[in-house]
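Deliverable D4.2, example record:
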Amino acid sequence: MGSAVITARAAATFEPVGRSVATARAFVRDTLQGWGYNDVVDDAVVLTSELVTNAVIHAGTAADVLCLRSAEGVRVEVADHYPEREVPLQSSGIDFGSPDRENGRGLLLCAALASRWGVEYSPTRKHVWFQLDLPDRPVGIRSAGPVLPTSLLPVTDQRVRVAVVQIDSTGAISAWNEDAAHVFGHTAEQVAGKQFTDFVAWPHTPGTSTGIADALQLSRWEGSYGIRGADGRTIPVYASHLRVRDNDGDPSTVCLLVRDDERAVLQSPVRAPVSDVSSDNRTADPFEVFIGSPAPDDLDGLLQRTVERARDMLDADAAFLLLATDDETELEVRATTGLPSARQRFARVPVEAGTGRYGSARMPAVHEDLTAVPGAVPLLTDTGMRSVVTVPLKVEGRLTGSLGVAAENAGRYSNEEALRLQFAADRIALAVESARLGELERLRRGSLSFLVEASDLLAGTLDRDQTLALMAQMTVPTLATWCAVYTIADQSSDPYLSYVLHEDEDLIDGLKALLSKISPPDPVPTPGARVWSAPAEAGHRAAVSTSTRALAADAPLSMSTATRTTLATAQAVGGETVVLPLVARNRVIGMLTLGKPSDDHFRQEILELAEDLSRRAALALDNARLYSERTAISQSLQRSLLPPGLPDVPNVEIEVIYRAAGEGNEVGGDFYDVFPISDGAYGFAIGDVCGTGPEAAAVTGLARHALRLLAREGFGGPAVLERLNAAILDEGARSRFLTLLYGELWPREDGSALLKVVCAGHPLPLRLRQDGSVVPAAEPQPLLGVIDDLELYAEEVVLDPGDVLLCVTDGITERREGSRMLGDDGLAEVLSTCTGLTAGAVAARILRAVERFAAEPASDDMAILAMRIPEPQPQQS
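Output generated by the structure prediction step:
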């Protein structure tokens, strides 16, 4: 301290543990307050906290703290015992290091706050000192304003009157002095016993929600409001409230009131911001002095730095900061220090904490002992904190958050600490709100992008299982660590665990097993997320049971794979789990369950995003269900339109290949049939109904069943088709054109087969002879369903051993690749290469040739009916 005379000295050494920082702060505070240096206590505590943190946390050694008093001020020295470090060159000056590093902030703060400071190095010691000069104030004056000209002094009446009003615990007036009667015109007898609020005109400032009833409940309060005088006019006053209690313990509030233009009589001087001058003679920014420079550019970093600074400023054991929701009805925990941080992060508490109209979160509040008012600060329940001071963060009169500090001892804080903390909160409120709005905008943009991508993915599939998988994969890990999807088949069915996903694939099986053992969540249709505690409770019970068995068996837990799996699963579900209903078309079709392993609460923004996703996913899932049901019905109907099997025809090989176009969601199309008639005769048919859908399916079913019925009644081929034509025309508007190849087959004893064929508008059947030649086996005749009077005739064909009769639908002959079409000639060319093949091989070769003809999938149904007369096998001698 130069030539200054040291008048007192205090020293202490603190061990290299985190708790030593708070102990060092308390040591410096108690020392300086004992010396009467209250004016520099706050700055000394902040600087000591930073320097001791560097020593015990970053350097990892004990810290020596020395306080020296002189008439000019106080000097504090902090030294560590780092075993070895490089001594910087004297010419290089002081190196602050990167301002973003934790261990660089102490020197930056020294430069900003201290009157003088310095650093001394040795190979095994770093010695940082700072000096804080006392303000030049006359003895006995706590604080004072500047000397002003007489013309600038506040104007008062000839006599300044201070109205003294006492309000009992019920809010009634119990005392009213002569000055109150003179100022307001009401005598003490007129107001005694009446509610004080009956005389108060409280200013309703837009965006604020504070009331006189709340002000009367605080231990100390200052502010402006109005008193209605006896003449009905409202008299603006400035008030100072003090909450007291009598010998019986009954509380009351003493109010000192002066006219508002005479407020200087009562108004407490505002603690001026730090006005230290930096090395370049520029005044330091109060925000940067409190937060440190540079300020974090992200919201979480800014909030965490804020609570740490607030804790240090008031020598607290813990600090916390909550941000208000958009509607100001709730506060969300965003940063804490000194508290079980994980279990409280993103938790929400209501703003309106009391039964009255206004909540304490909108005004500074001091709780001297939380044990006297359990639950007054829900965040501190079961944390061991006894005293707490909270102040609001406001921007343009709107509540944006709440900042609080707490201590383990009762009675640590008073109204003075609340004013100091409010001063700091006012300096950071705008920066915090700006950072919050920036983060919110980024979240909203990300949410919109996420939902657009999710909608595209969900709209790209109609498969139920794939929809479930997409739903889970979009959720994990973007929104949660794990998720489970429950589905409900119908209103009478219980929820079924359909899909489980965890970001760690090794935990999926264990998680699925755990969820399968507990009852599913109730399918409540109420929108929004609700907490589901069953998984965490079941995981805890399973972990305790498994650990108990392992200990009883005297076996290390690490040796049992099953035990490790159980414990890992319990940890996975140990955090918060929420359930969102999947509602589609006014029906709950399932539940989306989200979980995380930590004690963090889900952020409201995440839950809102998950709710939007659940609505889209529910509709996609229901669409997939409807599509699956429709597909199943279509396929069932399609199967009913085709014969269940082919009969065994003596000495004739028969093979049928049927390929439906598309994804199986249409019925109608092509059909075929082979059936016995009587007396060794068999009927066969292959046809194509114009169009698809229910109307075409009706004609398909009519044709196939009419053919069997009429043929078994003894009608020949032309008569069968003529009667079928009449039946189709009788359908009226539902009728459809029908191309049909119908024939009757009689196997002969000589190994050949006689066929009588009618080709009604259908692609002509092709006959393959043994010599490889291919010729049509029938002549074209009119199709069915067009004209009433048909004159059809049957054509006889004899198939010799080795011959093949190939019947196809137009999906084969009209196969296209650009402007090319397979056609009848192309089909005949392929068939000519099938000499000597069985009926099955012939049909397979035709299908392969058709599929290879074009790269695109077939757009029409395809049916192939191949009949072959096998060659006689040589007899073995």
